[in-house]
Write a structure and sequence with these properties.
39% of the residues lie in helices and 14% in strands. The protein has a 7-stranded mixed β-sheet with strand order 1-9-8-5-4-2-3, with helices on both faces. It contains 12 helices and 14 strands. α1 crosses α8 and α9 runs parallel beside α12. A hairpin with a 2-residue loop joins β6 and β7. The chain folds into 2 domains: 230 residues, Type I PLP-dependent aspartate aminotransferase-like (Major domain) (Aspartate Aminotransferase, domain 2), CATH 3.40.640; 120 residues, Aspartate Aminotransferase, domain 1 (Alpha-Beta Complex), CATH 3.90.1150.10. By secondary structure, it is an alpha/beta fold. The chain binds pyridoxal-5'-phosphate. Pyridoxal-5'-phosphate binds next to α3 and α4.
Amino acid sequence: MQVPLMDLKAEYAALKPQMTEAIDEALSSMQLVLGPNVQSLEQQWAELVGVEYAIGVGSGTDALIIALKAMGIGAGDEVITVGWTFIATIEAIILVGARPVLVDIEPEHYCLDPELLEQAITPRTRAIIPVHVYGHPADMAAINNVAEKHNLRVIEDCAQAHLATYEGEMVGSLGDCGIFSFYMSKNLSGYGEGGIITASDNKLAEQIRLLRNHGYTSKYEHQIIGYNSRLDEIQAAILNVKLQRLEWGNQRRRELAAIYDEALASLPITTPAIAPQAEHAYHLYTIRTPQRDALAAYLEEHDIGFATHYRSPAHLQPACRPYGLHLAELPVTEQAADEVLQLPIHPYLSEEQIEYVAETVCSFFA
Ligand SMILES: Cc1ncc(COP(=O)(O)O)c(C=O)c1O
């Protein structure tokens, strides 16, 4: 049996009639960017997340850059985040001219360790970007406490955590801004690039809206220097179709996670922990074992897709060396890099497939 890490073809097969119709409608209208599909997506997303505004942009990376810019963060400023993330989180801080200051993660959920925040704050610190990695929310109450005490902005990186909740509230509604990615691997994904920014502050939202479209206010008028980061209508039409299945998909991911949890419980591995105040979106199902590389080879032999995020954490990438980020002391991050592995978890995984994966993992340890 073959089990891919994700199965976009199965999803497409399930949604093909609605998808074809939505794309055809978007094309027939020839309103190709920031039109009715984008507006509808923005409105639904704001309602779902529980914020005043959701603003569609070109990607999750753009969302980070634009959120930082909208807060006026740039040269001379420091932004605290983690090394345990996709490089975009750090890249965005560097691209706006600010300096990333990295703190370690807590070992249970791999999210920013709030205990380490205060010691990372300097007079230049302007913001914190916690990453809800794998779909598990960071400890937002603790992070917001520190942010409030030191008058810092908070941008939640929700790229992997669509509709995950913390204390009953959706991620993306807990900081000043939330950023989401609709890249193809995400729980809600387009057939290209896309992202969205959530916010409840009117002025911040207005600034974000200007920045995403060249500072455009009216025909021939550009108020500020901005970006070309308009979400296109075809992506938005696709996202609107898939949005109808997002909650079902997350629920299915949780059911699959429960099957893994039970089947793998007696093995000498760590399965995902969930904080009592959190609901996991299971973008990825991460297990941990010192035998990670041998297990990976075994899965490969058995035709099972897997990932090892983050085998090479963002701060240790060659791109980050000129900024000295490799010098950050992140022992929990570095140990996790050698031990984590993600098993297939997506709504279209069959019972037979998940049983095969679980049995294969068990047979490796036997
Ligand atoms: C944690 C995190 N932040 C930001 C991004 C960037 O999103 P995009 O690929 O849509 O630019 C990603 C995408 O993989 C991500 O995983």
